[in-house]
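Researcher: Structure for this, please.
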Amino acid sequence: MTNFLFELKEGLAISLRAIKANKIRSVLTTLGIIIGVWAVVTMSTAIKGIDQAFQTGVSSLGSDNIYIDKWEWFNNDIPWWELRNRKNLELSDYEKYREFAKLPVASAPSVATVQTVKFEDKAVEYINITGTTDEYIETTNLSFAQGRFFNELESNGSRNVIVLGYSIADKLFPLGNALGNEVKMKGQKLKVVGVLEEQGSWVMGNWNPDNLVYVPIGFVFKNLQRENFRSVTINVRAPNPLMVEAVKEEAIGVMRRVRGLTHDEPNDFSINQQEGLLSNINQTIGVIQIAGLF
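Model: Predicted structure, token format:
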């Protein structure tokens, strides 16, 4: 009888230990499932955020645009040294393109440089400066929190005027009083004529319009860098998305004429479209999704 009670006691103890162990195992399994579900939900949210940020960026720039440039932005098929050895696109190339092209609703040249912008004791360093003409705003969907873009008179006269991206304005003028004030750039005073509406976070990083400023292209050539130091980009807007391919084909023909290419010479310029950026973003999202499976 004693042996029976001892064996019963031991059996119960073993059973209780098994139940306890299985309970811990069940808790750990459930915890693993919860963490897995949380990771999937978080990954899905991140992917949606990236996609939404990209769509915001495309919308602000305009989905019916092409960009004529010395450089190929997204296609890696052309060796970089061949791109480097191409002649720069010059402002005169843009002027001839504008004369010959019939399909675009708007076009504008742009050049980029980096400078510090100051107001009183505040300064924002390493700002991407876009030098362009008054028509640039017509190639985008950008809108204004305050003021306007510089006009034709200010553009043609290379006036000391500036349009600030929202984040730049907020850093220099936290009280929101940017409009009409003067900022300094490389010793030059520029009057703030406009502040862009906030775009919010999106995938273009420092090329988000929130982080840019815009000045007349002549101001850049006169005060910041000599003309033809960097290649000009020609920003072109089609009448609508269905016309983009037609505008692209016309641009190829016009630019070959402008650049003086013979029929057997390859293009010494590139036509860039936002589909290239979309492809890169989709590839990135695909990698994130695959990583999430592991």
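Researcher: Any notable elements?
Model: Residues 64-274 form one domain. The first helix runs from residue 2 to 61.
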